Structure formats: structure tokens, C-alpha cells
Amino acid sequence: MVHLGQLKGATQDGVTVFRGVPYAAPPVRFQPPQPAIPWQGVRDATRNGPIAPQPQLRGLLSPITAPQDEDCLTLNVWTPAGADKAPVLVWIHGGGFLSGAGSLPWYDGGPLAKNHGLVVVALNYRLGVLGFLPIPGQVPGNLGLLDQIEALRWVRRHIADFGGDPERVTVAGQSGGAHNIASMLAIPETAGLFQRAILQSPPLGIGLMDRQEAPRLALRDLELSELMAAQRKIMSATSRPDLLPPFRPDDGPPHNFPGSELVERAATGARVRGIQVLIGWTREETSLKATTETLFAAPCRTFASIGGASLYRFDWGASHGACHCLDIPFALGTWPAWMREPILAGADALEVELLSAEMMRYWAAFAATGEALPFRVFDRP
Fold first, then answer.
1. Do the Cβ atoms of 193 and 274 come closer than 8 Å?
2. Which of 321, 327, 362, 379 is the most exposed place for a label (fewest CB within 10 A)?
3. pLDDT tens digits, one per residue of 104-114
4. What is the mean pLDDT of residues 109-123?
5. Is 356 a catalytic residue?
6. What values do phi and psi take at 278, rounded to 5?
7. Known catalytic residue: 351?
8. Contact, 109 vs 87, CB < 8 A?
9. Which of 116, 150, 179, 285 is catalytic?
């Protein structure tokens, strides 16, 4: 039970999961999130909530087919049996600020809860034109980021009801999710919401978008189908590889600093607030070595140098090398759900399982103590 009302979850293998729990009120289009509304009676929390409206993207992952709706501000909580003041890991998914959902099987919190005693939270937030398109005078930017911060406030207020310790919260994310965590480290609004952070493959080299250069559209009163059609047009017009994503965090509130200062401000914020950080990238984030260096590797090294963070590089690779996203199934222990994906094509299941067990141990230890264990080096035969 949380202070908002009672929940009915489901228990399997010693882990109870609560799905589709609202962490905010149903969102009003292009408005900041508001606190969740209490409910009467027992809420069925055995099914995932809808994911944010998003396009179908082709790449190294299967198409996402879950139901979509603007009323998407929900989260899932996995809690191990007997949890009492357990370390908490909050997962923020990536997807280029355009796609994905914390409720997808790729980000299941069960393995970390079952094997390492963590209370795991994974959340959905607004994406694309609904979450990361600032229009001065019409639409505030960074709504997806504000959603995530509201979810962390929910965790702060309610996670003790699930056996978690609100004083031992690690916020972790990959790609766009990790980039958003950098923003959280750089701004005062998140003070006290988490004590540790794990940034996997943050594309910090993109900085923040100049909100004055954002696409101009009249979007407030469009039907959702019309809105997504407008988003597709923007994506089509900005699909060249030399252009930055059209939807991404901008330099407006809550940032209020130039986008080029993100890395320095995030690292300094972590150091000043005493937040322990683990940050890293995969060896072949992109097919171009120079792009991997500019967008991922160099900013990660700079962050670690300024902020005193623990630094790693993930080198293990399957048929596509150590590509973007490849560290997720290992860190979260969700590799069985990823074995069907192209990025693990041809991988030996036993080898994947063993490396995942080792990496989960590192991530769980960091969440519990803030200490980064010494990494072993893995080479394929």
C-alpha cells in the first residue's frame, strides 16, 4: 500500500511486481507533470500502463508494439520478499528521446531484485514532440525530463512502502536516459532525490538544444494522429546523419545555462552534492570511431576527471561489436529477452549469462554501497 491508495501486484520467484502505477496525474498536453491523484479501493497493478506515443524505428531492436497513449506517466516496481530499507535502483530508458518505455521486457527489474535484493523502479515518460519540443511562447521544453524528476519525487515519498530506502536511491539510465541524468546532476531541483547515479552511454557530446532553434509548429489542439504525423515530417526533414536529433533536451528551464556547459555543470554538481557516479560507454557506440569519441567517450572522460566518477568501457561484442545498447542486457540481467534481438545475434547464451551475472554484481554493489568494484577484463575466444 502507498499513501495514494492500495495496490494489487503479482508475485513470482520471490519478487512482487506492481505495474502501471501512476507517479503523476494524467498529463495535460504540453504542460509540466502534476503529482499523482489518490484512488479509492484496490488498484489492479498487474498490467503495464500504456507507453508514450512514438514512431516505429528500425534498427538493432525489434519494433515496439505495446499500446500507446498520452496518459503514460506510470512506473513499475519490483520488490524482493522481505525487503526492508533495501537499496533502490530507478531505471530511465533511452531511445533518442523519441522511443522506448521502462515497461518493456528489455528493462525488467526482476533479475536485480531476485538475485541482489534491490528494489527496482522503471518508468515511462513523454517522448518526442510531446516531451522534448520547446516552442517559445507556446510550449515549455524538457517535459520528458520533468516527468522523470516527478517520478523521482514519487520514489522519495513512497518507496519505503515497497521496502526501499529513500536514502539509498541510485538513478540509472542508458543513452537518452543517461543524458537526462546528467541534466539532473546539473540542476538544483533534484537535490535529495538520489544519492548515486549510473550513466551508461550518455551522448553528452550533443549538449543541449538551443530552444530558439527548435522546430516551429502549432501543436496544442491537434489530434494525436495529426501530432504524430507532424512529428514524422520533422524526422523526415532532419534524418541526415550529420544532424542532431530534432527532439532532445533544450537549454531552457530547468537548465538555464548554455548547452555546451552540460558536462562541466553535471560533473561539478555531482561532486559538490556528494553524489557517487559510475559512467561509461561501449567500444563501438557508432560505426564511426570519431563519432563514438566525440559524442560518448571524450565527454565521459571529461565528466570523470571533473566529478571524480568511476569510469568504464564495455568491450565485449557479438556480431555487431560492442555496439550502442549492448551493455543493457548484461547490467540488468535481462539478456534472455535480448537474445532474440540482432545485437546479440550469434552470441553464446552461456557466455552471455556468465558475463551478465558478473556485471549485475558490479551494478548492484554500486547501488548498495556507492563503491565501484574492480572490473575484470573479458575477451571473446
1. no
2. 379
3. 999 999 999 99
4. 98
5. no
6. -115, 125
7. no
8. no
9. 285
Catalytic hit among 103, 150, 158, 175: 175
Element (DSSP H or E) covering residue 142:
none
Residue 169's DSSP bridge partners are 88
* DSSP assignment of 164-192: EEEEEEEEEEETHHHHHHHHHHHSGGGTT
The letter for the amino acid at 371 is E
Exactly one of 103, 324, 341, 356 is catalytic; which is it?
324
Query: From the CA atom positions of the chain, what is the Rg in Å?
Result: 19
Closest CA to 234 of 242, 221, 224, 244: 244
Q: Which residue has cell 561501449?
A: 282
Mean predicted confidence (pLDDT) in 308-312? 95
Q: Is 260 a catalytic residue?
A: no
Q: Which domains does the chain have, with CATH numbers?
A: 6-369 (3.40.50.1820)
pLDDT value at 219 more than 60? no
Q: Is the pLDDT of residue 9 over 70?
A: yes
Q: How far apart are CA 65 and CA 52, in angstroms?
A: 12
Whether residue 164 contacts residue 120, with contact meaning beta carbons closer than 8 Å, is answered with no
Contact by Cβ (8 Å): 109, 10: no
DSSP state of 216: P
